[in-house]
């Protein structure tokens, strides 16, 4: 595990986003913290430029990195007593904390699954993204999945270029008509 990731784990622990003391426990609380840790590192790596370089694949509970799992099982838990950490200057600690401090494990599972699917198919329609998540996560209701996806859209953690362009097209039809007269190939 690289220094940036270790420091990030100290950041998570110090800000009470996860309880590192419990990650080695063979219990529900241990599983909960490991699952949350996987999702929070995935989010930091995929959306906040944390230089971790862990490969994630979709598993039963969303994106999971076996290599990261091996790393945190081997980690010395003395870091829970560490009060200082150093994160890359590009990492927005305040935004990260504000976005995820109150999110439960279900929200993290659905949101990271949505981000993983979105990243593999950037021009997916949001409706199709929601349907894909529903197929992978039938234990969650469609309204709940839709709410989580809308949270991600609102926070710009995912953006659908196709839908953004459609929204713009609806808002400025006169401009597009004028452009189409000049070059119809511009409007698709």
Structure, described:
- By secondary structure, the chain is mainly alpha-helical.
- Helix 2 (28-47) packs parallel to helix 5, helix 5 crosses helix 6 (126-136) and helix 5 crosses helix 7.
- The protein is built from nine helices and two strands; from the N terminus they run ααββααααααα.
- It has a two-stranded antiparallel ribbon with strand order 1-2.
- A hairpin with a 2-residue loop joins strand 1 (57-59) and strand 2 (62-64).
- The protein has two domains: 1-91, no CATH class; 103-188, no CATH class.
- The protein has helices at 3-14, 28-47, 66-74, 93-100, 105-120, 126-136, 142-154, 161-171, 173-182, and strands at 57-59, 62-64.
- It is elongated and about 70 Å long.
- 59% of the residues lie in helices and 3% in strands.
Q: What is shown here, in short?
A:
The protein is mostly helical and 188 residues long.
User: What would the principal axes of the Cα set say about the shape?
Assistant: elongated
Q: Kindly report the average pLDDT value.
A: 91
Number of helices: 9
Question: How many separate structural domains?
Answer: 2
What order do the helices and strands follow?
HHEEHHHHHHH
Class from helix and strand fractions? mainly alpha
Oligomeric grouping of the chains: single chain
Low-confidence stretches: none
The description of the largest β-sheet is: 2 strands, antiparallel
């Amino acid at each position: 595990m690289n220094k940036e990731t270790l420091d990030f784990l100290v950041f998570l622990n110090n800000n009470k986003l996860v309880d590192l003391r419990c990650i080695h426990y063979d219990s529900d609380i241990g599983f909960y913290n490991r699952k949350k840790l996987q999702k929070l590192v995935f989010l930091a790596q995929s959306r906040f430029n944390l230089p971790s370089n862990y490969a994630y694949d979709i598993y039963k509970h969303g994106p999971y990195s076996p290599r990261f799992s091996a790393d945190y099982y081997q980690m010395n838990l003395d870091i829970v007593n560490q009060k200082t950490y150093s994160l890359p200057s590009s990492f927005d600690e305040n935004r990260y904390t504000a976005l995820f401090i109150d999110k439960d494990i279900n929200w993290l599972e659905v949101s990271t699954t949505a981000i993983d699917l979105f990243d593999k198919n950037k021009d997916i329609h949001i409706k199709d993204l929601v349907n894909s998540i529903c197929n992978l996560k039938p234990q969650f209701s469609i309204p709940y999945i839709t709410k989580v996806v809308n949270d991600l859209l609102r926070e710009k953690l995912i953006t659908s270029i196709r839908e953004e362009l459609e929204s713009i097209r609806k808002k400025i039809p006169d401009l597009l008509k004028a452009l189409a007269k000049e070059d119809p190939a511009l409007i698709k």
